[in-house]
Every structure is written in C-alpha cells, then in structure tokens.
Amino acid sequence: MGYRLLVLDIDGTVTNSQKEVTEKTRKAIIHLQEKGVRVAIASGRHPQGVLPIAKILNFHQTGNFILAFNGAKIINVQQNTCVYERRLPPYLPARLWKDARKYGLGILTYTDSALIAGTEPDIYMELEAKISHIPIEYHEDFCRFVDFPVNGCLFTGLPEDVEAIEPVLAHRYFHETQIFRSEPCFLEVVPKNVDKAYSLKHLLEILGICREEMVCCGDSFNDVSMIQYAGLGVAMANGQEKVKDVANYITERDNDHDGIAEVIERFF
To answer: Residue 221 and residue 226: Cα distance in Å, rounded?
Structure first.
C-alpha cells in the first residue's frame, strides 16, 4: 500500500515537550510534501493555535488542511477558507456553564480572537490560552454573553475531577454532543458525530484519497478514533496506553526524539 496522506496530532506528537517542532521533524514533513504526499493536522486546538504550526510546516504553500476543534472545523490554509464546520446547539453552552458551576470545573468557549471563560480563569485555561495564542476574556454572565454559534466548549480541572465527570456528562448529553478528554485536565464538548475520524471522512472526499492510504499519528485520548480509522494507525512512544492499545504501530522514538520523522522514514 502506498500511503498518500499523513495526519498529525500536535501536542505530544508533532511537537516536543516544549511545544516546538524540531528541525529534523520539520524537514522530514516538508520533504514529504515536496514528494507529493498530503499532510494534515488534526488537533483539539483553536485554529489560531494550529495555524502557526501549519505555517512552520509550509501548509500555506502546499494547500494542505488543518482540522481544528477536534474536527469541528476544517480549513484550507493556503486559501484561508473553511471547507467544513459543525456547531453546538445554541442552547447548550448555558447548560454546560451550569454543570461547570455545579461540579466545580472551569468552562470556556471560543471566538475567532479569544477564549471566553465562564468561570474564574484557572491554570488550565491559561495553558489553553498559551497553546492557542489568544487571550482569555472572563464573562461572569457567560450564559447570556454566549448568544452566538460555537464549535465547542471545554471543561477544565484537576485530572481526577475531569475523569470522574466525563461519563456523567457523556450520558447526559449523549444525543447532542461528543464528550471526551483531549488531555487529562481538558474535557472537550463538540457537536454530535464530531471527532477526528468523522471529519477526516470529509477531508478524504475532498482529496480523493481512501482511508487505506492514510496514516494517522497521535498520543492522546482524542486521537483514538482517527488511529482506529486510518489505514495505518500510529501511537507515539509517549502516548497514553489506551492509544497504544488500538494502534497498528508504536513509534520507538517519542515526541522529544523525532518520532514523526521515524514514521516518515519507515512508511513513506
């Protein structure tokens, strides 16, 4: 099988522990695109947190795509156009805000230029703001302020608290949302039937590529669906055990030692 598409998660996958793309990995990905292989980034991040990585990897020249908000939004980087988008039901952010207050979690959502916090900003929101390269705006009247369509919401908190509440909220909003952890301290809420695999189906149609020709690489819980869906699913050596359990291949080198360059060398 000749692979024609490489899909990369960002944090813990294409970036190292300092949230940087190493020079070896950068050159390997750029060279792969020069050979005609498509590359996409699929991340839970806000688009503004994905675009700097895409630019480093020359997506603005190659016409490749990013999948932001775990796939709720697909953007052609070169054309700066949105080719696919899903949004939460308009009544849902207010309900989620009430849940956050009830269970002692943080909550935020997104505009194009800011993180909108509905609870006092915590260290996890500050981390998300740093990753996304956009500021936090705290709105105590969150349930009234958020009167516009959003791609998703994010609960934040201690890993043990987030893990405990995940099944509760997943059951409560089963018919309306997908709820999953993207990091131990982050609980993502996106529209129903939105995850990285579901959105990649749309990207494959756009590119005219079948899933058997796709390699997907990731390390965390929200990467499981695309790793299972791919023709070749790759878990990083530093990945969660749940991710490794479903992968076809586990890298020998972790994200601090150019694990993605290893994948390119081995399979492309």
So the answer is: 10
Handedness of CA 145, 147, 151, 154 (dihedral sign): positive
| pLDDT tens-digit readout, 141-162 | 999 999 999 999 999 999 999 9
| Domain end residue (candidates: 191, 221, 245) | 191
User: How many whole angstroms separate alpha carbon 97 and alpha carbon 118?
Assistant: 7
Res 224 pLDDT > 90:
yes
Domain span at residue 137? 92-191
* Three-state secondary-structure class, residue 104: coil
Count H helices, E strands: the chain?
A: 11, 14
Distance CA 23, CA 29 (A): 10
CA atoms within 13 A on the CB side of 89: 12
* 3-class DSSP state of 200: helix
Q: Average pLDDT of the chain?
A: 96
Give the pLDDT confidence of 4-28 residue by residue, as tens digits. Answer: 999 999 999 999 999 999 999 999 9
Q: Which residues contact 186 (CB under 8 A, 6 or more apart)?
A: 44, 124, 128, 154, 155, 156, 162
Last residue of a domain, one of 191, 221, 248: 191
Q: How many domains does the chain have?
A: 2
Give the Cα separation of 110 and 57 in Å (integer).
Answer: 25
